[in-house]
Amino acid sequence: MKSIYSRVLKATLLLAMLGLVACASDKVTLLPGADGSTGAVAVLSDDGGAVAVIDKPYQVANVRDGSVSTEQSDAASVSAQYGSVLEGLPPALSNYILYFQTGTTVLTDESMPKLSTLLEEVRTRPGSEVQVTGHTDTVGSLEDNDALSLQRAETVRNLLVERGLDPSLASAVGRGERELLVQTEDNVDEERNRRVEVTVR
Amino acid sequence: MRILTIKALAVCAATTVLLTGTAMADIGRVKISVGEASIERGGELIPAKPGLVLDEKDVLVTGANGRLGVTFVDNSRFSAGPNSRVELTEFTFNPTTHDGGFETDVQAGTLAIISGQIAKKTPDAMKVRTPTTILGVRGTEFVVEVAN
Q: Radius of gyration of chain B from Cα atoms?
């Protein structure tokens, strides 16, 4: 004869299992970035305020029915749990920096050979595309530099298309003076900032 | 009469193409597709081949043996594990200023994320929704798992 206790226990277990099935739970695990720095992820409330923030490598936030708890995991457990999904991330992009001969739209002798190297990468990288981004130094107005940087980007995009790049895979963008390679004051002539970056993604 | 109808149809078709043309912003592309992996667009399932251009509102869908790796024009990268449903709810991006908004809805499964220029420019401009919460992304690499 089964005791009343075991029946109660069974019923409780069943209820607990039903409860687990009914309430969804989400888990967020923060990882160290490729550059060694770690960012942060905030669990937000409906009004956009942060309820909890995880900002350490392998820190975990568990969210269940509106309540958040955090815990510390480690590289080995995270790799065991998420190894395959992390390996499934597409590879990091490649960046090629190209320079023009001063005052022209002609690439420097050092930059020219990079075109064929990057086109070779486009051919071998699955599903790849190319973004050409123009940059200027801080001489001139923001608007003029936006226009100039886009022109430089389009020049390089055309060079790539002439060399066989499918135009539907190539976009041109001007960043103007927003992303200086060498930090300077405004209105400083700096040739290292007058460049085009080609991103193979 | 018949000619008129045909003309009207032609105009309709042209308008549709035009509208589709403007709506089709290239927000990203499929890079890796393993096993059962597709893109759900307007109720249709499209096989997720590398190079396939993604659009706002697309849903990444994987089966029990499936995996899907995609990149976005702001350099964000996603990897969806098996049995996942991930909707690309909202994606706006200005490549000149890097201002934008990126909202993803992880409805099921597992999603690894490396955030890009949208999150770098404006913290919390990239958001990830799950069935129980909203996450604000402040950079850069993390995994979201939804257990139903």
A: 18
Q: Do B147 and A24 touch (CB under 8 A)?
A: yes
Residue B25: predicted pLDDT:
67
**Alpha-carbon distance A156 to nearest alpha carbon in chain B (angstroms):** 17
Residue A82: what are its φ and ψ, rounded to 5°?
-120, 10
Burial letters B117-138, b for 16+ CB under 10 A, else e:
bbbbbeebbbbbbbbbbbbbbb
Gap between the Cα atoms of B96 and B126, Å rounded: 18
pTM of the model: 0.85
Instruction: Classify the complex by whether its ipTM is higher than 0.90, answering yes or no.
Output: no
What's the gap in Å between the CA of A67 and the closest CA on chain B? Answer: 9
> Which letter does DSSP use for residue A101 in this model?
P
Q: Does B37 touch chain A (CB under 8 A)?
A: no
pLDDT tens for each residue of B115-126? 999 999 999 999
Total count of residues recorded for chain A: 201
